[in-house]
Amino acid sequence: MLIEKIQGAIDQGFPRIKLKFRPGWDLEMVHAVRSTFPDFTFHVDCNAAYTLADTEIFRTLDRYRLAMIEQPLADDGMSLVNHADLQQQIETPICLDESVQSLAHTQAAIRLGSCRVVNIKMARVGGLTASRALQALCAEQGIPCWVGGMLESAIGGAICAELATLPNFTYPADIFPSSYFYTNDIGKPELVLSGPGEVATSTVPGIAQKPDPELLKRWTVEQASFRV
Question: What pLDDT, on the 0 to 100 scale, is given for residue 43?
Answer without folding.
Answer: 98
